[in-house]
Amino acid sequence: MKKALALILALVMVLSLAACGTQAETPATEPTEAPAEAPAEQPVESETPKDYSGYTIRIYSNSNSTERTTWLIQEAKDAGFTISIDDNSVISGDTAAIQAANEKKDGDILFGLNETRWGQVVDGVYENLSLVDWTPSWAEEVGEYKYDGQAYGLVIQNVLMLYRNDELGTNGEKLHFQHWADIVDCGYTWYRQGKVGGTTNSNINSAMLFPFTDPESPAGGISVEGWKTLWNYCANGIYTGDSYGFDPLNRGEVQVSTFYSSSLYGNVDSAADSSEHPLLGTLEPENWALVDIADGTYYIAEYLGILDREGRTPEETEAVVAFAEWFGSADTQAEWADEFDSFPCNTAAVAEIYDETPAIYTLKNFALETVEGTDMTYAEYVGAHSSEWTNIMTNLGFYWADNSAAPTEPDWDNLDWSVLTQAAGE
Fold this sequence. Notes:
Layout: H1 4-25, E1 56-61, H2 66-78, E2 82-85, H3 94-104, E3 109-112, H4 115-122, E4 146-147, E5 151-164, E6 176-177, H5 199-209, H6 224-236, H7 246-251, E7 256-260, H8 264-269, E8 288-290, E9 292-293, E10 299-306, H9 314-328, H10 330-340, E11 343-344, H11 347-353, H12 378-396, H13 417-420
Parallel strand pairs: 1-2, 1-3, 6-9
Antiparallel strand pairs: 3-10, 4-5, 5-7, 5-8, 5-10, 5-11
């Protein structure tokens, strides 16, 4: 799948063989008079990259696993930058990342998040967050994934529904759904998350609620039937204590599960390290498959923007812009994608590392479909209602971690949605 190394090795072998053959077959000749000496070529002066390491660039992101932050700090150092970024033991999820940036007001760079959050930043929803007017040299390489002059795409992600099709799963039966929510009637066991918050959890909820949009509904723009279905998903799903759904599926503890795209192939590669009954076959699955869902799936794109930090000098801003230019470039994004199995927005980076688009990124994207009765895409609709959805799930007790303390199912016909859509205590 990744082709550069193989091509280089093949070329080295060919050139080595050719050189050996030439040396062996060239006959000895009489010495000849040396030609007149040509004027010596002047060495080409190469411009030394500017060192910006004297300024520490403060970064906020939810794409901040320990592995990612460690890699980025070191690669940035090698490129002449000093950066500061918290990993997910300090800041976890898009909500936490953007709240921290807004409250601390010390950020230079914001990256990650999704269209929902970036739409809010661009629209000025957060009082202390505004973006520098900026157009990188690679702006045209990210296609539609940009807010012109403000933020530009880094990584495309989606959420996936997987199932085992071996004897620990469907035993050969193929799963076809119309909607993500059809999982509640699939007849198999499924993993569900154990908390309301978190980027992947939120995206799964958005996928589950997609067929239940109702702009006239007081229940956060979702029909009551949609909330009943999501409750069913919680009540009858299995929470195994794992943060994500890959591990319980890999161990054979559930038959259907959910996961996020960027780590799927890497996890399948190492599946045998953590299971006696691992998933097999990374690009050509042997005992697992994607559920065929007619709607498609919920995609997000992560973006990169430069924050307008008060008090930053022109020289410091120059360092921040140079970092953003470097981080979003095709070369750096190809390295990031290769390291973390992500799929770049940058088409030049894609061309560097993939022979063809992986199957998980060919799925239909319903985040960009227009919601009936509105002029909003579903991603925009999610952005408009996401806080109400979080409040509803929190107030009603969705996604309990302890099954022995599961809340009673709500009396759906007698709920005050005007209260439930507000944060507790408001």
